[in-house]
Amino acid sequence: MMQLGFYFDQSRCTGCFTCCVACKDWHDISAGPIRWVRVDTIEEGKFPDPFVAHIFSPCYQCEDPSCLKACPADAIVKRKEDGIVTVNQEECLGEDSCGAPCKDACPYGSPQFGDEESPRMQKCDLCREQWQEGKKPICVEACPMRALDAGPLSELKKKYGELKEGTGFVYSSEIKPSIIFKPKKNNIGKP
Amino acid sequence: MAEKNREKEVIIPTMCASHCGGTCLLRVHVKDGVITRVETDDGEEPQLRACMRGRALRQRVYAPNRVLYPMKRKGERGEGKFERISWDEALDKVAAELKRVRENYGPKSILFLPMAGDLGSLHSIMTIDRLLSLAGGYTTWWGTTSFHGGVFASFLTYGTVFCSNTRNDLPNSRLIIMWGWNPAITQTGTNTAWFLARAKEGGTRIIAVDPCYGDTAAAFAEEWIPIKPGTDAAMAIAMAYVMIQENLHDQKFLDTYTVGFDKFREYVLGSEDGVAKTPTWAEAITGMPTATIERLARDYATTKPAALMSGIAPGRTTYGEQFHRATITLAAMTGNVGRSGGDAGARAWESILGGYPYKAMGLGAAIPFTFNPVEDLTKSDGVILGYTYPKIHYTRVADAILKGKAGGYPADYKMAFIVNCDYLNSLPNINKSVKALKELEFVVVEEQFMNTTARYADIILPTSTFVEREDIVFGVGMAYCGPQRKIIEPIVESKPHNDIAKALAVKMGIDNYDEETEEDRLKQLADMVDIPDYELFKEKGVHWIERSEPYVAFKQQIEDPKKHPFTTPSGKIEIYSQQIADINNPLIPPIPKYLEAWEGPNDPLAKKYPVQLITNHCKRRSNSQFDTFPWLRELVPQVISISVKDAEFRGIKDGDMVRVFNDRGETVLPARVTQRILPGVANLPEGAWYNPDEKGIDRAGSANILTRDEPSPAGSFPYNSVLVQIEKVEGVK
Q: What's the domain range around A165?
C-alpha cells in the first residue's frame, strides 16, 4: 500500500509560521481553535546557552492511526490509495456526543474541534485534492526555508534517510506516523 | 472548507512589498472579483516565497478596519468618531484647508508626514509630495527612521549607501557575524534566512552578537554573544585593538584603499585620549568577557572571507552612527570590502536605499521628481547629515508642533498631511505626539486602515492596497523587480494614491500634476530598468536582473582603484572623514568612537529605571502594519520579553501582566519570561496599536509610549536607548 507522508528539516525551521497561515488561507479556516498545522517551539537550556527548536505538527497520516480505532462511529477512514487519513464529517458524531476519543487517542494533537456547537472533527488531510493536480500540500509550497517536503514515504526515505525523531517529537512505533526528520539536536554542554 | 467550489478561479501573480524587508511573489486566486486564496512562487530557484504576512493577504484586503469611504471627524479629535462623506466634499475640504493655511501662515506651516509603508513606484507617498511641491511647498521631516546611523556612516565612509553584496553571496562566506541582525524576522531581502541555512549547511560558521537570542540566531548561530544594548561600538573598537596589537589587520588593504587609519589607531591605542580601548576596557562597558572579544576579533581577522552583517538595530541607539562607522572600519581592516563572501560592514538592511544599484528604483520612481520650493540648500549647513532647511528631524515633529518658532523651529505648524504613516505608533513618545496632533488646526490622513493615527484625523482619505492597482516594485537583497497587479477593484470607495493626488490636484487648481497616463509612467519605468516586454512582465510576475551571480559591492573599486575611486572626497574609504571633522561637533567625531549613550546602563536615570528596553521588530508585523489581522495575532501574541533573573527579582511569572513605565508613559501587557535575553534588558516589539485607557495608560503594549523623542547627534533614532522599570500588576490576568 502506498503511504504519503512528510519530511521536516528541523534544522532549517526558524518558526516563521508561514505554513500555519498558508494552511488557514488555503482551507479557509478562521482564526480560532482549528489548527490543522501547528508549529510548536521547544526551549531548553539556560542563559547564556539556550537551545531552541521548532516542531512542525500537521496530521502525520499514521500507518496505523489511533484516532481511527478510537472513533465510535467509524467516521475516520484510511485511504488505501495513498494512506491519507480522512474524516467523514457527516458520520462524525461531534465532540458533544461522543466526547472526542479520537482527540485523546492521538499523541500528536491532530484532531481539531471548533468552538461552534457540537463541533465535528476536522484535521489536516495532506491537502488531498492537491495531489490530483500533481501538487504538494500548501504548507510544503509555502515554507520559505524549503524545510518541508511531502510524497510517498518510501521515496522520502530514499531521498532524506530514515530518521523518525526530532527534538520535541517521539515516534510511536504503535501507530507509525508518516514523517521523516532531519532533526535539530541540543548539543549544549556536549563535546 | 477545502471542497468548496473553486472552479472559475483565475490566478494572477503579483508582488507583495510591505516594508517588511522582502519583495515576494504571490499568486493570487480570484473568482468573481473576490480573492479566494493565495499561493506563492513555485518556479525556478531562488523562488520568492512569501512569509506569514503575505499569506494573510485576504485578512488585509478584506479587513473590517479598512477605511471604506472618505470620512469626516465627528466629536473631539482622537475620539475616533467619524461620518461618511463624499470624495468631493473630502477633497474640497482638504484643498480649502491647504489654501487657507498656506495663505494665512505660509507654506512652511504645512507639515507633510509620509512614511514608507507602501513601496510602490507610482502609488506612493511621492504623489502627495509632488502635489504639495507644485502647490508652493511644505515642511517635512529628515532622518531615516530605521537606519539613519547606517546611512550616515556608509555615505560618509564609502561615499554611497549602496554597500551590500546580494544575499546569494552569503554561502561564499566562511564566517558570518550577525551583529544585531535577525533576518528570520526582518527579512532584509526575501530568502536571506534561506541563504543563511545554505551557508551553514556548506560549513560557514555563524555567530550572533545581540542582546536577544532571536529566531535567526536560534536557528543558525553556533555562538551567541549577548551584548548590552548601546555598547556595540565599544566592542567593535576593542576588536580593532586586538587586531592591531596582534598585527592581524590587513595593512596593505588599509594603505591602498583607506584614509585615516593612523588617526583611528591613535584613538584605539590610547595615544589620543590616554585610554587604550582594550578588551578589558570594553568588558566593563559591554558586559562581554575579554576572552570573547579577543576570540571574535581573531576569528574575524583570520577567517577569510568573512561577512560582518551590521544590523540596523544597534544603530538605532544614541550615537548609533558610531556603531556603523566602527563595523565599516573593521571590514576594511580585515580586507573584506569588495570581496565575494565578505561584506562592507555598512548596513545589513538595504530597503529602498542601498543594496543592488538599480538603474531606477524606489518610492515614486515612476513619478516626476519635484523640488520642494521652500527647501533652501544655502541654509542647510547640516546637509551632510541628510538635513536640509527647513526640515525637522522625525523625532522632533511633536516638539516642533508644540513650540513652533518660539522653540527655535523655522515655522509655526498649523496642519499635517499624513500619508502611509502611522505617525503615532511609529515615532517616539506617543503621549507627546498625541498632544501635538491635538494642537493642529487641521489633520488629513491618507490611509488603508483605521489605525491609531487615522483616529486623529479631521478628514481621512481611504487608499487602496497593492492588489487594487498597477505598479512596479523592486527586490531587496537580490536584483529583480516585479509588477503589482490590479487584481480586484479598489475596495468600496478607496482609491490608489496617484488617483487621489490627481483628483486633489483638480480641486487645488493645479493642472500640471501629471498629463501622462499611469500605464505610460509604468512603461517608462520598465524601460529604464531594461524590462524587455512590459506585457510579458505583468504576466510572469518577476523580472530577474541578475539571478545566479552574486553582486559584490565595491568590487570595481578594489580590483582597479585608480580607475574606480570611491565616491568620497579623497576617493578612498574614509575611516577619518574631513567632512565630519568640518562639522566640528565632538559628539560626531571624524573617526569612529565609542560615546557613552544617554539612557544606557550608566545613565544616572538607571537608578530609577534600571531596565534597558529595546524595541525589536515583531514577526507578525511590519512596524505597525498587519497588527490587527487575526491569523497573525493568534500565532504571535504581543508580549514583553524579560530574563528569568529580572522576572524572579520582581516576582513575575511567565504570562503575568506587567506595567512597563518611565517618565514618558506606561503600558500594560503580558510578560514572557525567557532564557533568550540578556538580564537587565527587556524587549518590547514595536508597532502594536496604541490603545489608552481612561487614565492614559496604554493597554496594547505599544513600545513608543516609552521611547525618547530626541535624535542622536548625527540623526540616528534612539528606539533602543530607553530606560524603564517593570512591575507586576497584581490581580490582573
A: 4-182
